[in-house]
Amino acid sequence: MQQPLAYRMRPKTIDEVVGQQHLVGPGKIIHRMVDAKMLSSMILYGPPGTGKTSIASAIAGSTHYAFRMLNAATDSKKDLQIVAEEAKMSGTVILLLDEIHRLDKTKQDFLLPHLENGRIILIGATTENPYISINPAIRSRTQIFEVKPLAPSDIKTAINRALTDSTNGLGEYPVKLSEKALNLLGEATNGDLRSALNGLELAVKSTPKNQQGEIELTLPIIEECIQKKALANDKNGDAHYDVISALQKSIRGSDVNAALHYMGRLIEAGDLPSIMRRLLVIAYEDVGLGNPQACARTVNAVTAAEKLGLPEARIPLADAVIDLCLSPKSNSGISAIDSALTDIRAGKAGEIPDHLKDAHYQGAAKLNHGVNYKFPHDYPNDWVKQQYLPNRLKHAQYYQPKANGKYETALKQQYERLEKAQKN
C-alpha cells in the first residue's frame, strides 16, 4: 500500500522544510546546528501537522545520520534498546520520539545516559507544553523549540510542490487546481499541512478526468475532501481575514448582533483556532482594564471551547462574544506598552538607576549598585517616593488611564494620587 502524500513529501534536507523559518531558515538555530554538525537533543512542540516530524527527518537527511522513529506511548523499552545498540555499533542515531510527554520513568531512565554521551540525538515531538508536561530530567538535557502553525502561503507552496513532484508527489496526474480551491487548502486547514496534503490527494484520486483529460479540482470538491466550507464571496482569497477583522471591529464597536454574525461565519467554516486566538486578542486589546473580569472569563471560555471542539464550542464562545461586546472598553494597556516600546526602539532606553541595580553579589556596593534603595514595604502604605525610570526618561508617562469601567476608574484615581505624591 502506498504511503500517504504527506509522508511521501517529507523534506529530505533542511533547506526543503516548508515554514518554521525562525528555526530552520539560513542563519537560524537548527540550520546552524546542521551546518556545524553540532546537533543537540531537542523538543519540538506545537499543533499537529506543522512540521515536527519533517524537521527531524530533514535534520537526519542533511547530516546523513541514521534516523529512527518511535512513539513514547506505544513503543517499549526494548525498542529503545534496539536504537541504542545501533548507535553503539554504527555511530550517532537521530531518534524522533513522538508524544514524548507520555514517556514513562523506565524509558526515561534508559534514555538519559545515551543522551549524555551523545550517541542518540533525541528529537522529541509533542503537542503539549513541554514546560508543564515533560519531566525536568529530559527538559534539562534538551533545547525546546516552538513549532508554529504554517502560514497559508507556506501551505500553498507545499501544495504546488506536491503537484509538480512526479517522484513522490502527484506530478503524474493532470491536475488543474482552481485558485479558490488552492486558497481554501491554504487557509481552512489552520496551518496543518498534513491535512491539506491528505485532502489534496483524496481529491486528486477520487475525481474523474473531464473531457479534456484533466482532473479539475474546484472549490466544492476541495470543500468536500477537507470537510471545510469556504467563506462566502471570497473573490480574492481575503475573505477569511476580512471576517476576522469584522469580528474584532464589531466587538470593539459593541455591536453584539454583528459580532455573532461574523463569528457564525467562522464557525461555519470550521475555523475554531482563529476564533479562539482572536477573542483572546480582543479581550486584552479592546476591553482590557475596562473590565479585567471579562478578559478572565474569555480565557475560560476559550479553554472550554478547545476541550469541547465544534459544534459545542460555539456555546462558550458565544457567551464570550456577548460579554466582550457589552463590556466597558479600554485600550490603555496596549497604548501604554506600545508607547514604551516606541521610546526603546528609538534608542531612548537610558541607564537603570544605580539604586535599582542587582545587589546580590559580592562587590556590588563598591559599584554603588543597590545602595540607597528604599524598600517600599518598610514605609507607610507600602510606598515611598523614589525614582524608577532612567534619568533621560524620568518624566515619561506611558499609561494614560481611562474611566470607562469601575475597575480602571479606580486605577486612574490611584495612578493620579501616586503621580501627585511623587511630584511633591
From TrEMBL:
One GO BP annotation here?
DNA synthesis involved in DNA repair
The taxonomy runs:
Bacteria, Bacillati, Bacillota, Bacilli, Lactobacillales
Q: What name is this protein filed under? A: Replication-associated recombination protein A
> Where does the AAA+ ATPase domain lie?
38-150
Which SMART domains does the record cross-reference, listed alphabetically? Answer: AAA
Q: Which UniProt keywords apply?
A: ATP-binding, Nucleotide-binding
Naturally occurring in which organism (per UniProt): Loigolactobacillus backii
Q: Highest taxon of the source?
A: Bacteria
Output one GO MF annotation. Answer: single-stranded DNA helicase activity
- Keyword Membrane listed? The answer is no
